[in-house]
Amino acid sequence: MKSLGPGLDRRAVIWIGNCTLGGTAGCTAIAMLITYCCTAHFGAEVLATTLSLAFYIPVLLGVPLFALIGVKIQQLALTNRLLIQASRYDGLTGCLNRGAFTADVIDFFAKQNLAPFPCTSALLILDADHFKKINDCHGHLAGDAALVAIAAVLRDAVGEAGVVGRLGGEEFAAFVRSTDATATGALAERIRLEVAEDRGREGGRADAVTVSIGIALFTYPAVYEDIFRIADDQLYLAKGAGRNCVSMMEHSPRDIRAMAEQLRRGFAVLQADGVDTIIDSQASRLAGR
């Protein structure tokens, strides 16, 4: 949107104009009404004089006053927006910072955990391979440019289907709200290939940036910390497999329930064995007597 001043866009200027006109007109109308009620019995000449004063004085004072108030309100609103942006977004890449990303994803988890028919989601964690080498060999400006390029690829690939955040350093995360294994694998491969191609176009260096991606594909109910741990483990598997690759694990509540059922059966067996052992021991004692 075209800016009409420092920090004020067209909508802000229109709002200030409406505030100025509305406030001035309201004050003028009130002043003239009060003046008429108070001076009507003094005659037409006095009434005309006082009404003209009741009109011009509010107009002369109200226009600059309400314009100033409108400007100050818009400046405060702009400051609040900038503070919110600074608290939620990473200054270099424009992605959500770790705190904002985590809060948004946990909020979605909470809603889906209560949904009768929850969707399948995916959490992707990406890490730039050998990123320190870029900084050491080409400087931190080149490293910053690589991070900005990775963020741009991520945002373009995920789009409105999810959110993208920078976890810190050269590590990013993407959360896709509703997806499946095929679509998630294709998305991860697209990101991996586009990052490598984008950096390759900048000179085809042998140390061009690539990314390793760990993915947790899951259904609800789920706990964010558990899903994050799974995706992080998959990232390290991708790193261990030679980097510049994707590793994905599917995780569902059925797996959790199956594990819980196995644990319950195991505990039941242990308890039964314990009871049998105690009974045999007591029987032996009685027989010994």
Automatic annotation (TrEMBL):
Biological-process GO terms, alphabetical: cell adhesion involved in single-species biofilm formation; negative regulation of bacterial-type flagellum-dependent cell motility
Q: Matching PROSITE patterns, A to Z?
A: GGDEF, PROKAR_LIPOPROTEIN
Q: Which Pfam families match?
A: GGDEF (PF00990)
Task: Cite the CDD domains for this sequence.
Answer: GGDEF (cd01949)
Return the GO cellular component terms, semicolon-separated: plasma membrane
Task: Provide the catalytic activity annotation.
Answer: 2 GTP = 3',3'-c-di-GMP + 2 diphosphate
Instruction: Write down the EC number.
Output: 2.7.7.65
The record's listing under InterPro entries reads: Diguanylate_Cyclase (IPR050469), GGDEF_dom (IPR000160), Nucleotide_cyclase (IPR029787), Rev_trsase/Diguanyl_cyclase (IPR043128)
Cite the GO molecular-function annotations of the record: diguanylate cyclase activity
In this protein, which residues make up the domain named GGDEF?
119-251
- Which EC class heads this enzyme's classification? transferase
Q: Which top-level group of life is the source organism from?
A: Bacteria
What keywords are annotated for this sequence in UniProt?
Membrane, Transmembrane, Transmembrane helix
Query: Which segments cross the bilayer?
Result: 12-34, 46-71
What is the protein's name according to its record?
A: diguanylate cyclase
Q: Which organism is it from?
A: Sinorhizobium terangae
